[in-house]
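User: Hello, beginner here. Can you help me understand these amino acid letters and fold codes? It all follows right here:
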Amino acid sequence: MRLVLKSFSPRAVQYTAALLCRTIAAAGIGRVCTVPLPMRRRRFDLLRSPHIDKRAMDQMEVRTHKMLIHMPCPTTWLAEELMSADVPAGVAIRVSP
């Protein structure tokens, strides 16, 4: 079972990964791998004044940080514990078998 954590804040991703790893270790699953995935940068330009000066632009960037947690053989009790874990706001968790 694999968990992919996504957030705009790198600290929130690291905190959530540590929290979930502690929960998995308490279940006695065994070795849990956490792998940091590449950060995704989305850059875009925003016109300051759309009517007069087309060259006046602000450049913005949104960074999405990701982390992968891999566990070898999960149990149903562990899946329920992970679903009920108190995850900080702004962290998305995707579960894949």
Notes: The longest helix spans residues 10-26.
